[in-house]
Automatic annotation (TrEMBL):
<feature type="binding site">
    <location>
        <position position="119"/>
    </location>
    <ligand>
        <name>[4Fe-4S] cluster</name>
    </ligand>
</feature>
<keyword id="KW-0489">Methyltransferase</keyword>
<keyword id="KW-0698">rRNA processing</keyword>
<dbReference type="InterPro" id="IPR058240">
    <property type="entry name" value="rSAM_sf"/>
</dbReference>
<feature type="binding site">
    <location>
        <begin position="162"/>
        <end position="163"/>
    </location>
    <ligand>
        <name>S-adenosyl-L-methionine</name>
    </ligand>
</feature>
<dbReference type="GO" id="GO:0005737">
    <property type="term" value="C:cytoplasm"/>
</dbReference>
<feature type="active site" description="Proton acceptor">
    <location>
        <position position="95"/>
    </location>
</feature>
<dbReference type="InterPro" id="IPR048641">
    <property type="entry name" value="RlmN_N"/>
</dbReference>
<comment type="similarity">
    <text>Belongs to the radical SAM superfamily. RlmN family.</text>
</comment>
<dbReference type="InterPro" id="IPR040072">
    <property type="entry name" value="Methyltransferase_A"/>
</dbReference>
<keyword id="KW-1015">Disulfide bond</keyword>
<feature type="binding site">
    <location>
        <begin position="217"/>
        <end position="219"/>
    </location>
    <ligand>
        <name>S-adenosyl-L-methionine</name>
    </ligand>
</feature>
<dbReference type="InterPro" id="IPR004383">
    <property type="entry name" value="rRNA_lsu_MTrfase_RlmN/Cfr"/>
</dbReference>
<dbReference type="GO" id="GO:0051539">
    <property type="term" value="F:4 iron, 4 sulfur cluster binding"/>
</dbReference>
<dbReference type="InterPro" id="IPR027492">
    <property type="entry name" value="RNA_MTrfase_RlmN"/>
</dbReference>
<dbReference type="GO" id="GO:0070040">
    <property type="term" value="F:rRNA (adenine(2503)-C2-)-methyltransferase activity"/>
</dbReference>
<feature type="binding site">
    <location>
        <position position="122"/>
    </location>
    <ligand>
        <name>[4Fe-4S] cluster</name>
    </ligand>
</feature>
């Protein structure tokens, strides 16, 4: 038996061709179907009531309609942030975060189940990489959250579990689908893609003709410190990473964000602030300082408030634009991978 195709990952042009050549249906059916998949965000072919019963039966026979199962949602009593745990069809689990801001609702999505990058301060990577997510599984995180909250998502951050550049083709397909005018039509300018510094991916993304914001997980101003925090630094030295970021700005005109997690006694003193200033002085971007979220498997400790403010003040004094990230969802394990990790541990205990 032929394996069923993942119909939610089809672009509108691919769907038109598929409907015509494989199902023998008229082109306008593709537009109807695409609307059900990406605007009405249908969970089942039977919801598609303006499609004939015979057409729906053909769809069921040949295609899978990817959906995510909501396993858990935790709502912060502090700021209303929602942390979702979703189940995939193969038993893997992923997480997403919904955050409400004055400018609109932002969702942080995962691009992989787990991660193989090994960053020392991140819970996502503790169990390694299970697999890449399909474009449809990335879309579904937004669709399910939008249906659950009843509110439109206006901003997307691909900064949850996983390294987006390690799942490049599905990432680009997802972006083209979510920004499609026939779908949710979210502005490319409202999408941020984070990377730990995979140089070929950054350069490739620069040539896609997209207007995305690129966020570099920097976390240290020199290779020696960065290697302690991020194994990827052993592959791509900072000189190459910064050059790739500059190339991204030159080709897209989009300012970069430099993510910098402050870890007490590791990368948070004024010598590091000075080195960071020298590293990015000529770059077009700003620094996002992040007081690191402690995880029990690591002994890293969040920098104190005075150290964070002193670090910020030094950068500002030397002409670097900087913000301290507002902590969201601290009371519900808001950091990447924490909810998924605790769920997997509890499931393991049950099965044992």
């Amino acid at each position: 038996m032929t394996e069923k195709k993942d119909i939610r990952s089809f672009t509108i042009d691919e769907l038109k061709e598929e409907i015509k050549t494989e199902l023998g249906e008229k082109p306008f059916r593709a537009a109807q179907l695409y609307q059900w998949l990406h605007e009405k965000m249908a969970d089942d072919f039977d919801e598609m009531t303006n499609l004939s019963l015979s057409f729906r039966e053909k769809l069921k026979e040949r295609y899978v309609l990817t959906t995510l199962k909501k396993l858990d949602v935790k709502i912060s009593s502090i700021d209303g942030t929602r942390k979702y745990l979703f189940g995939l069809s193969d038993g893997n689990v992923i997480e997403s975060v919904w955050m409400k801001y004055k400018y609109g609702n932002s969702v942080c999505i995962s691009s992989q189940a787990g991660c193989r990058m090994g960053c020392r301060f991140c819970a996502s990577t503790l169990d390694g990489l299970a697999r890449n997510l399909l474009a449809s599984e990335m879309l579904e995180q937004i669709y399910q959250i939008q249906k659950d909250t009843g509110e439109r998502v206006s901003n997307i951050v691909v900064m949850g579990s996983g390294e987006p550049m390690d799942n490049y083709d599905n990432l680009i397909r997802f972006i083209r689908l979510i920004t499609s005018k026939e779908g949710l039509n979210i502005s490319q300018r409202n999408i941020t893609v984070s990377t730990c510094g995979i140089v070929p991916g950054i350069k490739k993304l620069a040539n896609e003709g997209l207007a995305l914001t690129l966020a570099l997980s920097l976390h240290a101003p020199d290779d020696e410190t960065r290697k302690k925090l991020m194994p990827i630094a052993n592959v791509y030295p900072l000189s190459q990473v910064i050059d790739a970021c500059h190339e991204y700005f030159q080709k897209t005109g989009r300012r970069l964000t430099f993510e910098y997690s402050l870890v007490k006694g590791v990368n948070d003193n004024l010598n590091e602030a000075k080195a960071l200033t020298e590293l990015i002085r000529d770059q077009h971007g700003h620094v996002n300082l992040i007081p690191v979220n402690p995880i029990k498997e690591r002994d890293y400790v969040q920098s104190g408030k005075k150290a964070v403010e002193a670090f910020r003040d030094y950068l500002e004094k030397h002409g670097i634009q900087v913000t301290i990230r507002r902590e969201m969802g601290r009371d519900i394990n808001g950091a990447c991978g924490q909810l998924r990790k605790s769920y997997m541990e509890s499931e393991g205990e049950v099965k044992a």
